[in-house]
Design goal:
Radius of gyration: 23 Å
CATH superfamily: Phosphoenolpyruvate-binding domains
Strand content: 5-15%
Bound molecules: 3-methyl-2-oxobutanoic acid
Strand order of the largest sheet: 1-2-3-4-5-6-7-8
Helix content: 25-40%
Largest sheet: 8 strands, parallel, barrel
CATH class: Alpha Beta
Number of domains: 1
Number of strands: 8
Order of helices and strands: HEHEHHEHEHEHHEHEEHHH
CATH architecture: Alpha-Beta Barrel
CATH topology: TIM Barrel
Distance between the termini: 19 Å
């Protein structure tokens, strides 16, 4: 085990997160969309893994999160749930899966939990979502709120823009966060707000705040895993810190692999089954016959 790997311990719960905040221990949250990434990020010590509807942009290549469906979210949640052992798993409720009525929100959040295997759900919005949050929490569904820059309202906001810069807007973001916390949310994501405002909301809220583009004084931080791992070369917002350059490393690895294939350097004997015969011309058919010889070697190394 490498030194930076966090040993797996008991599953992080809503109560763990509350206790961390009361000890002034910051919460590390990250998105994941599949099992392998979930395992990697979980073993790296993520406290919370969000199956974000940002998958619409980074996995599906859409311009916004709006086209993501509930069935797609459930599919990705199930994959993440299979890969993670320790982190608390949050499933994002996609656009229009909770805005129409609290009843629909209940039904859809229930599916995300029961079929997707996540431990809580996240919904965007402020005071107008308070009733829905109350109903979900009353039904035993832990809810994470999300205020400030809410990507599902991108068209209403006129783009992905910092929210709460003017005093009256700051007041609105503050009262939205309070309304969601009062309705029973166990934590609130603050996205794209000035640091002073995030700091003030964090001081006034009875539940943990998780910031993204909200400065250093939140109770925790969240980043999109593709951003922090450097998989989104064209899309690096100011608030992102790139901890890796997976895109560049991936294209370089691909180029090396291509080179090896073209020069016949891959696969070598150690990567092949049976004895390697002399190279035959495609016309002789020897290679196909050799591959058809039955054997008992396991395929997995
Ligand atoms: O969908 C997402 O990834 C999110 C985070 C950016 C908070 O909502």
């Amino acid at each position: 085990m490498s030194s930076h790997k966090v040993p797996s311990t008991a599953r992080v719960t809503v109560q763990t997160l509350r206790a961390m905040t009361s000890r002034s221990e910051r919460i590390t949250m990250v998105t994941a969309y599949d099992s392998t990434f979930a395992r990697m990020l979980d073993e790296g010590g993520a406290d919370v893994i969000l199956v974000g509807d940002s998958l619409g942009m980074v996995v599906q290549g859409q311009d916004t999160t709006l086209p993501v469906t509930l069935d797609e979210m459930i599919y990705h949640c199930r994959a993440v749930a299979r890969g993670s052992k320790r982190a608390h798993l949050v499933g994002d409720m996609p656009f229009m899966s909770y805005q129409v009525s609290p009843e629909e929100a209940m039904r859809n959040a229930g599916r995300l939990m029961a079929e997707g295997g996540v431990h809580s759900v996240k919904i965007e919005g402020g005071a107008e979502m308070a009733d829905t949050v109350r109903r979900l929490v009353g039904a035993g569904i832990p809810v994470m709120g999300h205020v400030g820059l809410t990507p599902q309202s991108v068209h209403a906001m006129g783009g992905f823009k910092v929210q709460g810069k003017r005093e009256e807007d700051a007041q609105r973001v503050l009262s939205d966060a309070k309304a969601i916390a009062d309705a029973g949310a166990y934590a609130v994501v603050l996205e794209g707000v000035p640091s002073q405002l995030a700091s003030r909301i964090t001081a006034e809220l009875p539940v943990p705040t998780i910031g993204i583009g909200a400065g250093p004084h939140c109770d925790g931080q969240v980043l999109v895993c593709y951003d922090l791992l450097g998989l989104t070369p064209e899309r690096v917002p100011k608030f992102v810190r790139k901890y890796e350059s997976f895109f560049e490393r991936g294209t370089a690895a691909m180029a090396r692999y291509r080179e090896h294939v073209r020069e016949g350097a891959f696969p070598a004997a150690a990567e092949s089954f049976g004895k390697i015969p002399e190279r035959s011309t495609p016309a002789s058919g020897d290679a196909i016959q050799a591959a058809a010889v039955p054997g008992s070697e396991p395929v997995q190394g």
